[in-house]
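Provenance

Sequences were taken from public entries as deposited. Structures were produced by running a predictor on each sequence independently, with no templates supplied. The record for Transcriptional regulator from Massilia aurea is shown for reference.
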Amino acid sequence: MDLLSSMRSFVRVYEARSFSAAAKDLNLGQPSVSKSVAQLEQKLGVQLFLRSTRGLAPTDAGQKFYEHALRTLDEADLAMKAVKDANAPLTGRLRVSGTITFMRQHIIPKLPDFIAQHPHLSLDLLLDDGNIGLVEEGAEVALRMGKLASSSLTARKIGQCRRIVVATPGYLKQYGVPIEPGDLVRHAAIVLSRGEGGEHIAFDKDGIETEVVLQPRLRISALEGIRAAVLAGLGVAVASEWILEDELDSGQVVEVLADWRMPDLDLWAVMSGGARHASPQARAFIAFVEEQLAATRYGVR
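Predicted structure for Transcriptional regulator:
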């Protein structure tokens, strides 16, 4: 008995509630479909359908087997598709959304490698610091930061980075270096007004937790604005490490309160169709981003 073929026959009979209709859908003879279901029942040792002159009705065992058989057939189809797609060149267009600063600094500069690997694939990059819904954007993949809103969409954590307190050496020379988190209330704060921003900041050091309420001089809705304001010496900011990586390395910006930690900022790949039904294009792009991050300190450890 070909188990997958028999399960396919059973699923169609279950959905059509008819051997003849299932046989027609499968382009098989009715005796063949009836035999497949009978062999399944014999192998399982249970009756899957109640047969009467009024038609077919699934038994409790039949209902339970249908749920598992459907998942098994889906997985088998996906396995076949994955192997076939692995050798096929990626074509078409993939729409990807992400935050402006992260994409500009860490993804777009790497795209020549991805495009060289998939020369027949086109990308639409939808850049916005707000977490606009995938459906509204028409995107298949979104790179999202921080905590995700509850939804039916599938997400996978692919990166993370530290949140740190930063300022320019010039600002700190003029206004002093914060030694404790509580010192921040006496400094001009630059605050992100959406997403993971806000004035309430939780710190931790050796198991000691404290919360500080910043005093914003500037509230800005985009990370590019936060970055520009810090570089202009307008105050201190709580920012993700990756938006100021180059400036931290060069000393143009410095980290303060380095012995205190805040919750890490997570990067998620969100798929509008779910992981099981993601297109080869979406899977390839997510794998590429994950590979790029794994080579840095921002990969998931």
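Residues 41 and 263 are 54 Å apart (CA to CA).
The chain has three domains: 3-86, 92-161+266-294, 163-263.
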